[in-house]
Write a structure and sequence with these properties.
about 160 residues; alpha+beta; three-stranded antiparallel beta sheet; two-stranded antiparallel sheet; about 20% strand; elongated; disordered N terminus
Length: about 160
Amino acid sequence: MLYYRYKAVSYSTNKHTHIYTYMENKGVIRLNINTNIDKPIFIQIAEQLEDSIFTGIFPEETKIPSTNELSALLNINPHTVLKGMNLLVDEEVIYKKRGLGMFVKKGAVEKIRLKRQSQFYNQYVAALIEEASKLKMTKEEIISLIERGYHDERN
């Protein structure tokens, strides 16, 4: 079992956004808390922790920063952080080890991948088709643009 120690290596803020960067043994996590948007802070925390798990910053069966560490560094109420973490507990992405903290659950990356794949159509494909329809684009034109995007990405 791997345990990591986290520390804030940089902090920047303006009136509405707080950006915190944490360094750990394998990577860097950035938490961007924006108080100027409608999305609740606890959801922002959950989404960013989930993304850090998905991208491998927090591998499966490793400890994530504690509620108290995050609340102190983000300067927000610990209950807000806990509420975000509990969303991930409910989704069985993280779990609590009594007396040790929160850990990434084995299989969490695949669970996140499946969740994101199911959301992909509604968030991206349906919106793309709706906008293309407004522009009177054909299916072939859309496919051509997607192929161009893949081609540009590889070059």
